[in-house]
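User:
Note these tokens:
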Amino acid sequence: MPADQRVESSSPVAGADGALHLAIIDRGAGRRLRLFSRGARSYRCYAGLPPVTGAGVHLRQHPLTGEWIAYSAARQGRTMLPSAHDCPLCPMTAAAPVTDVPVDDYEVAIFSNRFAALLPDPGPVPELDVATRSGHGLCEVISYSADHDASFASIGDDRIALLIDALAVRLPEIMQDPDITWVLPFENRGREIGVTLDHPHGQIYALSHLPGNIRRMAEGFRDGNPLAGLSARIPDALKLAENDAGLAFVPPWARYPFEVWVVPHLAMPDMRHMEMAARRDFAGLLGLAARKLDAVFAARMPYSFGWQVAPRGYEDIFHFHCVFQPLRRAQDKMKFLASVEQFTGFFLVDLPPEKAAEMLNGG
């Protein structure tokens, strides 16, 4: 995109709160910047940050577990906790530092990750004495807001609904690649969890292989739907909120302190299949859950958050849901995954779900 150009948005589909407008900006080197908004917008665009070479991206297989491990040397040089003035996710003006969202303002942006762990065209696979495969995939960034100081908990239900609409458009586009098996939109939040940028954002990873734990989760729906009828089965003491779209609750099987699940009442493979009115209500549950997590210790809760959508081949049985995995177990104590949990996957939880729900509900 040449510097100082203007781009107009179009309106491709309906969204939870009306028309969903989209502008797509070609940034060269195979990169795209997608700008989603609720109303029609005109963007002033600039050249922005240049691409980063991602040569050598590939996967190697663990000889004992069979799991695939991605290697991408470009990630070693990714931007690390810049000041707000130098944030690469903030809007850009002619006088401002160069950013990765080089427009004067925006609502929700989805764009190519400069420091990708997976690439659409990763190049040749090295010959090694362990099994290898192509690092084919996709890594994108989702910026929730132009406001550097915002968060998922503060952007409001309208913006979360817009985020749902944006993912409902983008995920099917990604799955048009027949080699992509599964897509994970997610957020790492808080410096305690290791984020490299403070700006409110998430990411999208599209994988050409299905990780073992995700396969096991998907297979859990094979003999019935464990998430069906939760409203009648989850004890009231574990519920955080409920509306026509779904239920937010602390699961009785929680692996993390203050873990929260948000599950639609109706089974569906992903958010694309959610009715427009339900998307708005579902956004309200997600926003409430995020705010409750921040309120429990009157401080921003560090967490990992995942939009769990159906892997390829499981669309007919999967039940889309969202999961918050917080890392703070007390005001001054963090939840770290130590040796037992890392080596075995056997989780040790200090805070019973019932107590966590009581605290999240203000008790």
Summary: The helical segments are 157-174, 212-219, 230-233, 276-295, 339-344, 353-360. The two ends are 53 Å apart (CA to CA).
